[in-house]
């Protein structure tokens, strides 16, 4: 079963977008790891003033949040690429309903409709 309004050209374009986005996210993760190594090397076991430590901890917390978000996106990207290979790209993993083309253009890794994504996010926040 395939999305009724997605043509092969659109799907091929989306696949390339997903592959490019995947590579970008991996590069961001690699850069964050390099930054952390530089911070640790710069500290070198020497005492730092509170301002330096505060800056470092704030940057580290920011990097961890970005990495966590990017890891989630990578999982979604990998799933979207699987769906392309399966011939189900553009169909919700939950209901099988078509995901609007506009949503796929905005967020190519979408595997759920907007409503389903909102429901999943609310459920995740509740625990």
Q: Distance between the terminal alpha carbons, to the nearest Å?
A: 33 Å
Morphology call: elongated
Mean pLDDT: 85
Question: Strand-and-helix sequence, N→C?
Answer: HHHH
Structural class: mainly alpha
What CATH calls the topology is Four Helix Bundle (Hemerythrin (Met), subunit A)
Q: Domain count, please report it.
A: 1
Q: Please count the beta strands (DSSP E, at least 2 residues each).
A: 0
CATH homology-level superfamily: DksA, coiled-coil domain
Architecture, according to CATH? Up-down Bundle
Largest sheet: number of strands, sense, barrel closure: none
What can you tell me about this protein's structure?
- Residues 32-57, 85-127 are annotated as: Disordered.
- It comes from Luteibacter jiangsuensis.
- A zinc finger (dksA C4-type) spans 92-116.
- The structure is a single chain.
- The protein has a single domain (8-44, 51-126), classed as DksA, coiled-coil domain (Four Helix Bundle (Hemerythrin (Met), subunit A), Up-down Bundle).
- The protein has 127 residues and is mainly alpha-helical.
- The chain is elongated, with a radius of gyration of 19 Å.
- The chain is 72% helix and 0% strand.
- Helix 1 (8-43) packs antiparallel against helix 2 (50-86).
- It contains four helices and no strands.
